[in-house]
């Protein structure tokens, strides 16, 4: 079965896998921009939480005059939650935003390859894992038409202006072009990366966050001073430790491990303090405590 990729003007329905922060944000963007959305999670409670997060986010945007109540009401009508992959039968593109685990993502891609229609684009919101390796578990009778691609949104997706697109070794031009056009329809600016660990953003961001942990670990400065130094000294919206808590310390650790393993340079080795926080369940804002205490 040759998979001829959906063209942008044919993309009307999207499947999003994973109803965490990223999946919910991507589903919101798609619904607001006129797509029919199926948001899938195996946990119904995550879907309930995601629906609330989306409704809150839409109201925040409405309160600033960026969205009308009519647009919000239409968007919410287009948003469907499901626990079954069968509901992706009409999806023109699927974006997965599940946990940052290569094994879990590969298992999902095997299933998506079987259950989606042959023209569907299969995209991953992975922050660092190889698109080429994810694509390798799908059927690809014609490398020319390979429809697997990285579509990496930044957190929070409704606010951040960037989408990083990653072409696997064999991703087709048609797939790239349709994915880029979709990101632009969402109002995002696109940058394109080759498929090497961490791509552009995390390859540069994570060493900074890791260095902030080493700065704390070796007692150079307090967490507050490290963050204030970088926030005020380099005009960033959040200091690196605060940002790590926002992203999730477990996510930062896993990205650093991918960078370290994939690029083979000791400069990416995760700081022991970061690893210890994760071992202790201090995962950042989502667990109530990370570098800072949010309880
Ligand atoms: N939905 C709608 N609006 C939202 C929102 C959401 N989910 N989150 C924030 N906002 C809006 C707020 O309404 C507010 O709008 P106004 O300024 O117009 O009033 C604005 O965004 C700022 O929000 P807050 O006042 O609540 O908080 P803030 O000023 O601290 O901003 C932030 C929050 C936008 C997250 C900002 O701190 C920021 O940009 N931080 C850096 C985020 C960043 O770097 N993200 C990328 C991380 S790397 C990544 O994602 C890649 C990876 O793979 C790990």
TrEMBL record:
The keyword Aminoacyl-tRNA synthetase does not apply. PROSITE patterns: 3HCDH. Residues 13-195 form the 3-hydroxyacyl-CoA dehydrogenase NAD binding domain. Keywords: Oxidoreductase. InterPro entries: 3-OHacyl-CoA_DH (IPR022694), 3-OHacyl-CoA_DH_CS (IPR006180), 3-OHacyl-CoA_DH_NAD-bd (IPR006176), 3HC_DH_C (IPR006108), 6-PGluconate_DH-like_C_sf (IPR008927), 6PGD_dom2 (IPR013328), NAD(P)-bd_dom_sf (IPR036291). Residues 198-294 form the 3-hydroxyacyl-CoA dehydrogenase C-terminal domain. It comes from the Eukaryota. It catalyses: a (3S)-3-hydroxyacyl-CoA = a (2E)-enoyl-CoA + H2O; a 4-saturated-(3S)-3-hydroxyacyl-CoA = a (3E)-enoyl-CoA + H2O. Gene3D superfamilies: N-(1-d-carboxylethyl)-l-norvaline Dehydrogenase, domain 2 (1.10.1040.10), NAD(P)-binding Rossmann-like Domain (3.40.50.720). Belongs to the 3-hydroxyacyl-CoA dehydrogenase family. In the central section; belongs to the 3-hydroxyacyl-CoA dehydrogenase family. This is Uncharacterized protein isoform X1. The gene is LOC110783618.
């Amino acid at each position: 079965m040759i998979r001829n990729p959906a063209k942008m003007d044919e993309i009307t329905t999207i499947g999003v896998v994973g109803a965490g922060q990223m999946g919910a944000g991507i589903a919101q963007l798609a619904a607001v921009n006129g797509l029919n959305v199926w948001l899938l999670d195996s946990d119904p409670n995550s879907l309930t939480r995601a629906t609330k997060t989306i409704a809150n986010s839409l109201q925040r945007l409405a309160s600033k005059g960026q969205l009308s109540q009519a647009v919000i009401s239409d968007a919410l009508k287009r948003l469907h939650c499901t626990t079954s992959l069968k509901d992706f039968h009409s999806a023109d593109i699927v974006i997965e935003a599940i946990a940052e685990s290569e094994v879990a993502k590969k298992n999902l891609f095997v299933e998506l390859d079987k259950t989606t229609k042959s023209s569907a684009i299969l995209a991953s919101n992975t922050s660092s894992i190889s698109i080429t390796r994810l694509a390798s578990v799908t059927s690809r009778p014609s490398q020319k038409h390979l429809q697997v691609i990285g579509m990496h949104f930044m957190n929070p997706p409704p606010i951040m202006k960037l989408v990083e697109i990653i072409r696997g070794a064999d991703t087709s031009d048609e797939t790239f072009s349709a994915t880029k056009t979709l990101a632009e329809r969402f109002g995002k600016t696109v940058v394109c990366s080759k498929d090497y660990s961490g791509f552009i953003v995390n390859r540069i961001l994570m060493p900074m966050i890791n260095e902030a942990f080493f700065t704390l670990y070796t007692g150079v400065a307090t967490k507050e001073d490290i963050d204030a130094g970088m926030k005020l000294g380099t005009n960033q919206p959040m200091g690196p430790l605060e940002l790590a808590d926002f992203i999730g310390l477990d996510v930062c650790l896993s990205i650093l491990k991918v960078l370290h393993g994939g690029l083979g340079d000791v400069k990416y080795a995760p700081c022991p303090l970061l690893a210890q926080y994760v071992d202790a369940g201090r995962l950042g804002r989502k667990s109530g405590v990370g570098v800072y205490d949010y309880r």
